[in-house]
Amino acid sequence: MVAIGLIATTTGIAAFGILGSSNRAPQETEFAVGPAAEALPETALSSVAPAIVQIKVDRASSSFVVTGLIIRSDGHVVTASDPLEGARSLTVTTADGRAFNATIVGTDPADDLAVIDIEGSGLPTPSFGDINSVARGDMVFVIGRTPSDNRSWVASAIFQSVGVRLDTTDGSTLHDMIGSALDVQPPTDSAVLCTKAGEVIGLLTSRAAGATQSAALAAVPSTLALPSATNSFAHSVAWTRHVVDDIIETGSVHHGWLGVMTTDAPEGGAAIESVTRNGPADRAGLIAGDRITSLGEANLATSSALVVALRDHAANDTVTIGYVRNGVAAKTFAKLIDRS
């Protein structure tokens, strides 16, 4: 690991080290910068950092800090759901040092995402980017908040892959994740992944620690050398915003449910292991042993791809399902139901 850092401020670049000031002006932001992160333009960094907040979580017998992202200017903040479990109180400190009591709007434990709310208006929000604009081997950046003094923390990473499935140590599965090689692990959960242009493209999860991924992330060509890089994983900002919208509007996450348990088929697609009785798949005539190859317009290469395709559909949508049974391709139609 290269132990080199810079401090970048809105008024210029300071020398090596990690410095801070408790009485800085609200408009000024200081950055503890990790290896090679000087490649992130100061203007891009300054456009993201004001929207990143520190969240102090108080439990009955402990307290700790996680990172959050102001995703709406009215005070809605997205963060990880796991750290909020058992929380008795939440305190959000913004980049300019203001502290707010926060309430939990709703959580999505399946994805380790949560929305909390603070009393505010006109709060800074970041620009959101398109993951399709980032290529393998591109330099990306992770930004979080330091737990002790609420400074912005930045490190460089190499963008590696999209569509990664993670089977985590707690038995959950995370789908369609973004994989990056990061040299320095963030000091808190829920750090933000952004591009060199200062656009947010993802939100990191700490569940990746010890997880089994769907495929090894091979080294990719890059001009950035990360000698001790480890894999980090993030939800795309598109999915994160979908979850946020659902939670704010309804209190939970909703998408169409098919009613099958599947696994990856060696030939490609999602092999059905079991079908929920009287569920949409059952009513559509699907049985264990069928191999689902498409849903709607999406061709499916894996079981995880089926989960991701279902995210694009709501309850009461009727979808065309392509499948193979005993070597014969066929199609059927299923009316999805809600699974929140």
Protein model, in words:
With 340 residues, the chain is mainly beta. It has two domains: 1-251, Thrombin, subunit H, CATH 2.40.10; 256-338, Pdz3 Domain, CATH 2.30.42. The protein has four helices and 25 strands. The protein has helices spanning 42-48, 237-250, 280-283, 303-310; strands at 6-9, 12-14, 30-33, 52-58, 63-70, 76-79, 89-93, 99-108, 113-118, 127-128, 139-145, 152-167, 173-182, 192-194, 199-204, 212-213, 230-236, 256-257, 260-264, 270-275, 291-295, 298-299, 318-325, 328-335, 337-338. A six-stranded antiparallel β-barrel has the order 11-12-13-17-15-14. A six-stranded antiparallel beta barrel has the order 4-5-6-9-8-7. A hairpin with a 4-residue loop joins strand 4 (52-58) and strand 5 (63-70). The longest helix has 14 residues, at 237-250. One of its GO terms (molecular function) is serine-type endopeptidase activity. Residues 256-327 form the PDZ domain. Pfam families: PDZ_2, Trypsin_2.
List the helices and strands and how they pair.
Layout: E1 6-9, E2 12-14, E3 30-33, H1 42-48, E4 52-58, E5 63-70, E6 76-79, E7 89-93, E8 99-108, E9 113-118, E10 127-128, E11 139-145, E12 152-167, E13 173-182, E14 192-194, E15 199-204, E16 212-213, E17 230-236, H2 237-250, E18 256-257, E19 260-264, E20 270-275, H3 280-283, E21 291-295, E22 298-299, H4 303-310, E23 318-325, E24 328-335, E25 337-338
Parallel strand pairs: 3-12, 10-15
Antiparallel strand pairs: 1-2, 1-3, 4-5, 4-7, 5-6, 6-9, 7-8, 8-9, 11-12, 11-14, 12-13, 12-16, 13-17, 14-15, 15-17, 18-25, 19-20, 20-21, 21-22, 21-23, 23-24
